[in-house]
């Protein structure tokens, strides 16, 4: 398997200011490590004896969208869940290797998962608002952090819902309507607002639109493009058009004969979808896979 | 080689009959349950007609005239409250431990076995155990507190088991959603899991309370059987046997009182008093059921809104 260098990855995804010679980009990267938000080093994830993900190393640039694609069972969701250590909740799950967030290894036993999950928020496959009012759904994270000042909460709830592009639809019954009374697409945007209210840097999305209709899906995708300006986003998706539409970088996972998922290649989305380096990727993209 | 069966073959007649029979039997079973409850209510409503009146509920018992049931009714409510004050929080905490913290191992297996075993011990045996432990061993005599403690032995396992089931029924996604927002495990339990489990927890409280209200065997030997004295509700001396607020006094409950009258009651009004008491007992259980459900709804709203 070939792992492209960071320079190759970012050459096509970075903002226009980086339209310079390749070597210059590489130099600039070496000089500016702050641009790398997350990096993983040889991450393997085991469920008991079974290896679900093997030796994945990649980097995620700040304020970009990384899409993880691949067939079912290739371990991409499992891999996503190691960024906020949700795998800790699965009995028997074990993660090897290092996951660095802003240069700090979050697998370190000293790391507080509670703090980590405030900085790395997560949106799930099925919209899962709490059976509370819209307001209380969004206020949930801040309240657990001890924020009880009404005015500040009101403000936080309003800005978060506005950022999630849901404000106009719900502003009149924030406290009267249950989060569960919204449509599926609205519920998912509410879940995004709920994450934004905890003020994260990174947002993980595990197939966030797979339970939604096409119109709602499009709205979520538009929202992701907007959020990209302020947040680093990692998304798992089964929908290759979606990966092509929203992401800056795409990582293709598949599984080997031992059933372990591994990274085939990662690169700028445009390149992965037009001229991938690996035959496996090309087969998957063009629908010739399994 | 068998031929392809024709769609018109008669073999399906048997299954149609079985289907009809199943419908009738299942419907009949449901109807039977309702019928039994209805029959009990109607019987005692008719039998108690003319007996139950405000003065019947609010006056002291009498050995000669048609006395009232105020003290024994009070004792039932008092012992119920005392038992629930102990059993509900302890049972809930036990249920939280079993559902959210304990892993499946020999210890939790033993706890589950004990829960089931204690729940199926005949209540008269629990009463005897209370008699030996409190009355004989600790020389405490018959008191409301002893009755409540013995009832707690009997009901705590049930409350724990039902709490555990109610908490386990809360979908895992709710926990994940809360933890992923940076809530701690306890915050997740306190603000998401327990509020969502309230309907199930209320069922646990109702079943436990129903057993307390109706229980006579456990209380015969622990809180005592006798005709209570006149209670002075203005007497707050917790060590006075005439104070209805004291947990340290013998306290015959309504169901024990019915047992006493039925087995040894004399006087011309005994049967009327029994019917009236039974009607009141049933009404109390029904009122408690509805009341608990109402409180549950209010609680759910409160806990999920703040």
Can you offer a commentary on this structure?
- The complex is a heterodimer of chains A (290) and B (306).
- With 290 residues, chain A is α/β, with parallel strands linked by helices.
- Chain A has helices at residues 6-11, 22-31, 76-80, 113-119, 134-144, 150-163, 167-170, 184-196, 214-227, 240-246, 269-274, 279-285, and strands at residues 36-47, 50-61, 65-69, 93-101, 104-105, 120-123, 202-206, 232-236, 249-255, 261-268.
- Helix content of chain A is 36%, strand content 24%.
- In chain A, α5 packs across α6, α6 (150-163) crosses α8 and α8 (184-196) runs parallel beside α9.
- Chain B folds into two domains: 21-50; 54-305, MetI-like (MetI-like fold), CATH 1.10.3720.10.
- In chain B, α4 (106-120) crosses α6 (144-168).
- The N and C termini of chain B lie far apart (70 Å).
- The relative contact order of chain B is 0.13.
- The mean pLDDT of chain B is 87.
- The chains are: A alpha/beta (290), B mainly alpha (306).
- At the A-B interface, α4, α5 and α8 of A face α7 and α8 of B.
Q: What would a concise description of this structure say?
A:
The complex is a heterodimer of chains A (290) and B (306). Chain A is an alpha/beta fold.
- Report the order of strands and helices of chain A: HHEEEHEEHEHHHHEHEHEEHH
Determine the fraction of residues in helical runs of chain A and give it as a percent range: 25-40%
Low-confidence stretches of chain A: 1-33
Show the largest interface: A-B, 27 and 20 residues
Total tally of structural domains of chain A: 1
CATH topology assignment of chain A: Rossmann fold
The helix count of chain B comes to 11
Overall pLDDT of chain B = 87
**Computed structural class of chain A:** alpha/beta
Instruction: Look at the structure and give the CATH class of the largest domain in chain B.
Output: Mainly Alpha
CA gyration radius of chain B, whole angstroms: 25 Å
**What's the helix-strand series of chain B?**
HHHHHHHHHHH
Largest sheet of chain A: 6 strands, mixed
Provide mean pLDDT of chain A, rounded. 86
- Biggest sheet, spatial arrangement of strands of chain A: 6-7-8-3-9-10
Q: Architecture of the largest domain in chain B, CATH level 2?
A: Orthogonal Bundle
């Amino acid at each position: 398997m070939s792992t492209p260098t960071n320079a190759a990855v970012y050459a096509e995804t970075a903002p226009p200011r980086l339209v310079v010679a390749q070597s210059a980009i590489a130099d600039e990267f070496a000089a500016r490590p702050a641009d790398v938000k997350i990096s993983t080093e040889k991450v393997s994830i085991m469920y008991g004896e079974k290896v679900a993900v093997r030796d994945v190393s990649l980097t995620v640039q700040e304020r970009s969208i990384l899409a993880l694609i691949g067939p079912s069972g290739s371990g991409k969701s499992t891999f996503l869940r190691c960024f906020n250590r949700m795998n800790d909740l699965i009995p028997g799950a074990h993660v090897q290797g290092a996951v660095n967030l802003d240069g700090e290894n979050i697998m370190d036993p000293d790391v507080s998962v509670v703090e980590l999950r405030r900085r790395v928020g997560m949106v799930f496959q099925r919209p899962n608002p709490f059976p509370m009012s819209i307001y209380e759904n969004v206020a949930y994270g801040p309240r657990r952090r001890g924020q009880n000042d009404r005015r500040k909460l009101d403000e936080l709830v309003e800005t978060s819902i506005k950022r999630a592009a849901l404000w106009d639809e719900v502003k009149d019954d924030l406290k009267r309507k249950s989060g569960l009374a919204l449509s599926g697409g609205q519920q998912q945007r509410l879940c995004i607002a709920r994450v934004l209210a905890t003020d994260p840097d990174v947002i993980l999305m595990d197939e966030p639109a797979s339970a939604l209709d096409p119109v709602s899906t499009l709205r979520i995708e538009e929202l992701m493009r907007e959020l990209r300006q302020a947040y680093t986003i990692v998304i798992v998706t089964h929908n290759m058009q979606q990966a092509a539409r929203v992401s800056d970088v795409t990582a293709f996972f598949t599984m080997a004969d031992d059933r372990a998922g591994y990274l085939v290649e990662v690169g700028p989305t445009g390149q992965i979808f037009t001229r991938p380096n690996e035959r496996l990727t090309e087969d998957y993209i063009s629908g010739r896979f399994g | 080689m068998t031929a392809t069966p024709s769609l018109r073959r008669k073999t399906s007649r048997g299954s149609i009959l079985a289907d009809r029979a199943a419908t009738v039997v299942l419907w009949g079973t449901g109807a039977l349950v309702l019928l039994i409850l209805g029959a009990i209510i109607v019987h005692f409503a008719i039998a108690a007609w003319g007996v139950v009146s405000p003065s019947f509920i609010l006056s002291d018992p009498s050995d000669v005239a048609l006395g009232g049931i105020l003290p024994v009714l009070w004792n039932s409510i008092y012992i119920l409250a005392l038992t629930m004050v102990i059993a509900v929080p302890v049972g809930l905490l036990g249920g939280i431990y079993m559902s959210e913290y304990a892993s499946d191992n020999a210890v939790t297996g033993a706890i589950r076995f004990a829960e089931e075993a204690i729940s199926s011990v005949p209540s008269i045996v629990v009463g005897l155990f209370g008699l030996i432990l409190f009355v004989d061993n600790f020389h405490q005599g018959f008191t409301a507190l002893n009755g409540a403690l013995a009832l707690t032995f009997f009901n705590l396992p049930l409350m724990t088991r039902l709490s555990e089931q109610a908490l386990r029924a809360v979908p895992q996604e709710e926990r994940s959603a809360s933890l992923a927002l940076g809530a701690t495990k306890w915050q997740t339990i306190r603000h998401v899991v327990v509020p969502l489990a309230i309907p199930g927890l209320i069922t646990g409280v109702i079943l436990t309370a129903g057993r307390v209200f109706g229980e006579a065997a456990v209380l015969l030997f622990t809180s005592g059987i006798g005709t209570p004295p006149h209670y002075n509700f203005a007497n707050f001396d917790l060590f006075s046997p005439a104070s209805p607020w004291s947990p340290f006094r013998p306290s015959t409950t309504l169901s024990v009182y019915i047992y006493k009258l039925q087995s040894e009651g004399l006087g011309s009004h005994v049967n009327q008093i029994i019917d009236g008491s039974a009607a009141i007992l049933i009404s109390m259980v029904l009122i408690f059921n509805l009341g608990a459900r109402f409180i549950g709804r209010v609680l759910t709203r409160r806990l999920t809104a703040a």
